[in-house]
Amino acid sequence: TPVVPRVPQHRKEYATQDAIDFLNALFQPDDIVSYVVQYTRDKNGACKPAGRGVFIRHCSEVIEDLSKGITEDRLHVDVQCGAWIRLNPTDGKGIHDRNVVDFRYALVEADGPPIETQWHVINKLRLPCATVVHSGGKSLHAAVRIDAGNDAAEYARRVAKLYGVLEAHGLKIDTQNKNPSRLSRLPGVRRGDGVQYLVARNIGCASWDDWTKYIDEIMDGTPRPESWAELRLNPPPLSPEIIHGIL
Question: How much is the pTM?
Answer without folding.
Answer: 0.86
